[in-house]
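Researcher: Can you fold this with heme C in place?
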Amino acid sequence: MQNFSFRNGIWRTGLARRLFVFSVTWLPLVVWADDIGMPAVVLKSYTSECAACHVAYAPGLLPAPAWNRLMNSLENHYGSDASIDEKSVKEISTWLQKHGASTRRFNEAPPDNRITSTAWFVRKHREIGSAVWTRTAVKSRANCVACHQRAAKGIFEEDEVRIPR
Ligand code: HEC
Ligand code: HEC
């Protein structure tokens, strides 16, 4: 019995110790690795078809199922008709899903497929007053680039945030 107690058994086998050392060394990296960025190669049609009305959102901001649903309902796109030819839909949809969120942090797919509806988005922006969102230079939560100048590159560093007056 004694041999299998925590101290005499698991810890001494080194397994618990190794797990502990591993978590101390690597967990912070796993948790903080939230740089989104853009895929190394950005699909041409994505830029031409999806950045006309707003910034080209980084694919890593939504998981594959959300992109899939969004790409299947472009004729009814948040009050706009964003429909495009079938070939482009297929190409962009495949690319978006391939590069969709790969970290748990951005893995949420809200029913309306909005980045701005995710819990992480709401949490990260909860200190912004409602009057700020309606400023002419901001207009909408979806207008990331108003405050994150490098949003089109998928960069949202906290120390680069500038809220326009
Ligand atoms: C005709 C204009 C138009 C085109 C083209 C367009 N969108 Fe949009 N999109 C909108 C509008 C309008 C909204 C809502 C913005 C708002 O709420 O302020 C929106 C919102 C979005 C959102 C949700 C933003 C949020 O609130 O989190 C995503 C994601 C999105 N678009 C992706 C795409 C993709 C992918 C394409 C290309 C296939 C595309 N859009 C093409 C007009 C367009
Ligand atoms: C009105 C300005 C504004 C708009 C518009 C806005 N943000 Fe932000 N964002 C902020 C502020 C302020 C913070 C918090 C910075 C801090 O914590 O110091 C933030 C934080 C973030 C963070 C967390 C950064 C980190 O390092 O933790 C992400 C990711 C982010 N925003 C993404 C977005 C996306 C995506 C959009 C558009 C769909 C968007 N934001 C629209 C102002 C804005």
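Model: Folded with heme C in place. The mean pLDDT is 89.
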